[in-house]
Amino acid sequence: MSAAPDPGPAAPAPRRLLPRLERYVLAHVSGYPIAFLWAMAAIPLTIHLSLRDLDALHGDLPAIGQLIVRRLAWPAAFVFALPHVLAIPWAFGRDPARYRRRTWIAIAAVAAAGVVFGAVSWLWLFLR
Description:
The chain has 128 residues and is mainly α. The chain has one domain (17-127). It has six helices and no strands. The model has no long low-confidence stretch (mean pLDDT 89).
């Protein structure tokens, strides 16, 4: 019997795209609840900063709703984009294991900041 030929030095593993996209999708999915959390947290401050514009609408509820949603969309969109940016080194870097923990700590910090901001914002509104 003859032995199998020696393949030589191991070739570097090809950089597969699917695991990278899977990691990025996880960060993408985490952005939805975080953006919703920040949008809910920003409601009292948004209403407070928009009082003059709200008074100018003279009780037109659909217009008031549109104004508030438009003003809440900016912070929500910004916070939705943060997990995407934070996950780039983890998803597409050369050493994903090195950045996994840092990425999730940073994403959790964005969520925790939203919880704290929301608690302060809503408490301020209720205790006014």
